[in-house]
Design brief:
Blueprint (H helix, E strand, L loop, with lengths): L1 E4 L1 E17 L2 H4 E4 L5 E6 L6 E2 L4 E5 L2 H36 L5 H33 L2 E3 L4 E3 L9 E2 L8 E4 L4 E8 L3 H9 L5 E5 L6 E10 L9 E8 L11 E18 L4 E3 L2 E8 L4 E6 L1 E5 L3 E6 L6 E5 L13 H5 L3 H7 L7
Antiparallel strand pairs: 1-21, 2-11, 2-15, 3-10, 4-6, 4-9, 5-8, 6-7, 8-10, 11-14, 12-13, 12-15, 13-14, 15-20, 16-17, 17-18, 17-21, 19-20
Helix pairs in contact: 2-3
């Protein structure tokens, strides 16, 4: 016969679900690194599986053709700037002559139009020079996001370009990382209420056996519709995952704490019985060693404890083992009573001549 005492304890309200690890912010969390310009791959500056940061140079394309294009664009700009400056000097001279009535106004207007034309040409040259500089910078292929590089699909000497389907490499962001899981539609209102309150809901990711905690995070988002086939709503929890225990597409067991009931009356799960009229417990009367059947209202439950909302007070003792053989008012023998010898047995065991 097992006995336990009702006690006060915090009772967490948790949601257990099977989740799938996904890269955070799907639009930017996985990036295929493609060059912006075409050319021969000159250097590869990363290793497969390496962690890289955003902006880190991963590869170099042969820059010589782009350097020549930049020189050509710069030369065109300088030539046209010189022509523009010369035309401006001539225009200033023509305007002086016009004030002296020594030149026709038509010639002044024609020269002013030539200056504007050359200014437009110089602006076009500057844009072409900027494009050439940009293309030259693109010969340094950089990581668009930070994360882990996948397997390499090209080698040095390969001709690569922006149209490559596989690119140079694929980077997956690992921190932060998300776990997607399903919330039963009956629990959605309680979850939404806590989110509306601005509460931070802690989440823990466990391995497939639920024995080892992989990472801790918090609730991130709830979808806006119910899946009619499963009756669930998709949700997402986010983890910093500094130790990189989570891996994209990995299956994990997620435990989300929705709220925590403070100072709840709890007893072991094995103390709660179920009958035709509802839940009940057997309460022990320590004075006469009898039990009384007590209807109770159960609340939240954990793996080993269950909350008793009504029907039981803190400090009362309940039967946890052997209750199948009991009925209301039955007398019980506790383990301590069964092992302790009676007064007659103690006298019989006492050696002769010993003090009584």
């Amino acid at each position: 016969m097992g006995v336990a005492t009702a006690e006060k304890a915090d009772s967490p309200v948790v949601l257990d679900a099977l989740g799938t690890v996904t890269a955070a912010a799907t639009a930017t969390a996985t990036a295929t690194v493609r060059p912006h310009v075409s050319g021969v791959l000159q250097k590869i500056l990363f290793s497969e599986g390496q962690l890289v940061r955003a902006g880190q140079v991963l590869a170099t394309i042969d820059p010589r053709a782009f350097e020549m294009a930049l020189l050509q664009a710069s030369g065109n700009r300088q030539r046209n700037e010189a022509q523009r400056d010369s035309a401006k000097v001539t225009l200033a001279r023509f305007r002086t002559l016009l004030t002296q009535d020594s030149i026709a106004r038509q010639e002044v207007d024609t020269q002013a139009a030539l200056v504007k034309q050359l200014e437009g040409t110089v602006m076009t040259d500057r844009a072409a020079e900027g494009v050439a500089k940009l293309n030259l910078s693109y010969t340094q292929v950089t990581a668009p996001i930070g994360g882990r590089v996948g397997l390499r699909v090209v080698d040095m000497g390969n001709l690569v370009g922006s149209g490559e389907a596989n690119g140079i490499a694929v980077i997956t962001q690992l921190s932060p990382i998300d776990v997607e899981f399903a919330v039963p539609q009956d629990q959605v209102p309680a979850l939404q209420a806590r989110v509306s309150e601005g509460a931070t809901l802690p989440a823990v990711a466990f391995d497939r056996t639920r024995t080892s905690s992989l990472a801790t995070g918090k609730f991130a988002a709830l979808d806006n519709q119910v899946d009619v086939q499963t009756g669930t709503v998709r949700a997402k929890a986010r983890f910093a995952d500094a130790n990189q225990a989570l891996f994209p597409s990995q299956f994990v067991n997620l435990r989300l704490e929705i709220r925590n009931i403070k100072e709840a009356v709890v007893v072991p799960v094995t103390a709660l019985r179920h009958g035709s009229t509802g839940d009940f417990v057997y309460v022990l009367d320590a004075a006469d060693k009898t039990v009384a059947l007590r209807p109770v209202t159960r609340g939240q439950a954990t793996v080993d404890k269950v909350q008793v909302v009504t029907g039981l007070q803190v400090g009362e003792q309940v039967i946890t083992e052997g209750a199948d053989r009991l009925k209301d008012g039955a007398k019980v023998t506790l383990p301590a009573d069964a092992t302790a010898p009676s007064a007659g047995e103690r006298r019989r065991r006492q050696p002769e001549g010993a003090a009584q």
